[in-house]
Give the backbone structure.
Amino acid sequence: MIRMIARLLKVLNSESEPGQVSLAFCFAMIMGFTPLYSLHNIIVILLVLLIRVNLSGFLLGWAVFSGLAYLLDPLFHRIGLALLTASSLEGLWTALYNMTIFRLENFNNTIVMGSLFLSLVLFIPLYIVLNLGIRKYREHILAWVQKTRFMQAFKASKLYRSYQTLSGWRG
């Protein structure tokens, strides 16, 4: 648990733009909420690798959202069942299921359908909330921590200078 908090702080304090970190967590939500072996997760991984997102944030978010998904499975089932049994969408599901690619996607599974639907609905709101939260964190909390006596003493130490030297070697 302490490692996860340390990783979260490392991601929040990184030089990455808040949008990159927010997008990483949003893509991680899709990967974490939906079953791992789904075709849409391949698309998510490709997007993560093609778009500049914070990979550490993505991996951390994936772990968090995967754990949260087990708690939300009953909700995913109810949402998926409601979508799949809606009479107005019956023609759409029949047409999609007759295509091989959608049959491989397992959209007829209530948990797959519900988890993907919920993660897509929450994608934009989560992006906005995380982006604002990260900006506020960096403006207020990080700035306050940088001004504390402990941090000033730590930055004056040999350990911190050695770290700065070594981190400069990475380029």
